[in-house]
Every structure is written in structure tokens, then in C-alpha cells.
Design a protein that fits this description.
With about 280 residues, the protein is α/β, with parallel strands linked by helices. Helices cover about 50% and strands about 10% of the residues.
């Protein structure tokens, strides 16, 4: 097994990460005058970490776990999600997604695997927001920084949320945090997948493993040149070019719909929410 601590350039988890996230979550739930939060639990690493962070920060009575199985969902993943929710004393809602996914696919005449995957992802978010609305809860996203920067998410699907606790943590940092907060080892070791079709894996679609991806992304974040990233991250030039391409072509997915400048202050450009309190 490769010793990733030997790399000069790699994301490192800060000791106060959980504390910062907890303060952030409490503040924004209070600011929104919300009663709690909803999180879709898939049995995967990111959703498990998100749910545990929410429980630790807010208490189990303010967290709703939603299980959303459908035809491509592994039974083992759902079982693990339920076990964790029960261990953390979180209330669980089950929403079977087959009918909404299949009816949408039939209506829109969608058979392409990728487009069907987007429908599944967006349908899950419909379920989460519907449940949240009935309880005055906020929806927690489960995406991490590696996914956000490479565009590896469905716009208005798993990329939609009110708060995204892991959005500034690379996947490798999320794994570190998972160990720190007590996520079961088998969940941490599970091959990352959105379960949008049988055999799907994150790294297979991204064309690169997360450990390598995160080192390159950190180099890009720090403004390093490609030659510097190749040397410090111990990767090859083709890998850096590939990752830069993923980041570049997914810019639109990290922005809300662009608005032409017509007024004195424009949403998404120079509007400042904090000024509303003056």
C-alpha cells in the first residue's frame, strides 16, 4: 500500500475541522430559523460523515435521515445506512424512488444511462426538499471539494442543497475525518459510488483515483504551475492536464444561473446579503 504521507503536496485535515463545521451548522440553522436538517443517507462515506457531523452538532432530534433506494441501490449500502442512523438515534424516513424515476424516464423517453442517472439524482433532491418543507428543516448536501471542483455531480441534483458541510474538504480529508468521528470501517473502505447504475464507481468515471486527484487539485488551488504540481505531487503531466480540463469545463456547475447586469446591485455579482441587516 502506498504511503500517502510521503507526498510533499497533499491535503491535510486540520485539527479543528469538526468544531468549525459544527459552529457553521448551528449558526446557519439558527439564522434560517429552521427546526433541523434533512440528509439523504446512502450508506456511502460522504453522506455518513455529513449525518454524523449533524448529529454531533445539533443532536439526533434535529436530524432526519432519508433512505432513497431504487433498482440500482445495493442492499448492503441501505442496511449500513439504517444501522448507522439507528446507532445515532436519528429518525429515518424511507422513500422508494422506483416509481418517480421510472415514470419520469418514460414521460421524457430517456434510456441513456447518464441522463437516467441525472434523473435519479434530481428525483432524490425532490424527495429531500419535500420532506424538509414539511418540517421547516434545511437540506444538507453531501458533496465534497473533489467532486465540486471536477464537476462530478448532477446540477440541481446532488449538487443542490441549503448547506454543504463537506464542500471545502477533499475526498481524502473526508476519509480522515470519518475515522476521527467514528464512521464504521467498512463504510470508509467502500468503493465510492453514486449508485446510479450497476457497477458505477466515482474513480472509474473521473478517470483518476481520489488520492492522486486531490494532490493535483490542491496544487491548482494553491496556484502552482503544472511543472510544480508534477514534481511536488509526484504525478505525470497527462494527469494534471486531465484534472485541469475537468475543473475548467465544469465552471458553470459551480455557479447559479448567470444574470445580465441591469440594476445597481445584481444577485450573483455584487449583491451582499449581509447588508440586509443594516
Amino acid at each position: 500500500m502506498m504511503d500517502h504521507s510521503a507526498f510533499m503536496l497533499r491535503p491535510v485535515l486540520k485539527p479543528d475541522t469538526q468544531q468549525v463545521i459544527s459552529i457553521f451548522l448551528k449558526h446557519h440553522v439558527s439564522l434560517a430559523e429552521a427546526e433541523g436538517v434533512v440528509v439523504g443517507m446512502s450508506g456511502g462515506l460522504d453522506s455518513s460523515v455529513t449525518a454524523k457531523l449533524a448529529v454531533d452538532a445539533l443532536g439526533p432530534d434535529k436530524v432526519l435521515a432519508v433512505l432513497m433506494p431504487e433498482s440500482s441501490t445495493p442492499d448492503e449500502s441501505m442496511a449500513d445506512a439504517r444501522d448507522m442512523a439507528e446507532a445515532w438515534h436519528i429518525h429515518v424516513e424511507n422513500v422508494r424512488m422506483n416509481d418517480i424515476v421510472n415514470s419520469t424516464a418514460r414521460t421524457l423517453k430517456v434510456s441513456d444511462r447518464s441522463r437516467l442517472g441525472n434523473i435519479k439524482s434530481r428525483a432524490r433532491m425532490i424527495a429531500l426538499y419535500n420532506l424538509a418543507a414539511g418540517r421547516k428543516f434545511l437540506v444538507l448536501g453531501t458533496g465534497n471539494k473533489s467532486e465540486l471542483l471536477t464537476g462530478y455531480f448532477t446540477k440541481w441534483g446532488d449538487g443542490a442543497s441549503d448547506l454543504c458541510l463537506l464542500g471545502d474538504l477533499y475526498k481524502t480529508q473526508v476519509r480522515e475525518l470519518a475515522t476521527h468521528i467514528g464512521i464504521p470501517e467498512k463504510v470508509i473502505a467502500r468503493v465510492p459510488s453514486g449508485d446510479l447504475w450497476k457497477g458505477q464507481t466515482d474513480e472509474g468515471e473521473l478517470g483518476i483515483d481520489y488520492a492522486t486527484l486531490d494532490r493535483i487539485l490542491l496544487g491548482i488551488e494553491l496556484g502552482m504551475k503544472d511543472t510544480e504540481i508534477v514534481k511536488e505531487a509526484r504525478v505525470d503531466t497527462k494527469q494534471v492536464t486531465h484534472v485541469r480540463s475537468l475543473v475548467k469545463k465544469s465552471v458553470h456547475k459551480r455557479r447559479m444561473g448567470l444574470i445580465p447586469k441591469l440594476g445597481s446591485r445584481t444577485v450573483g455579482q455584487d449583491w451582499r446579503e449581509a447588508e440586509l441587516s443594516h
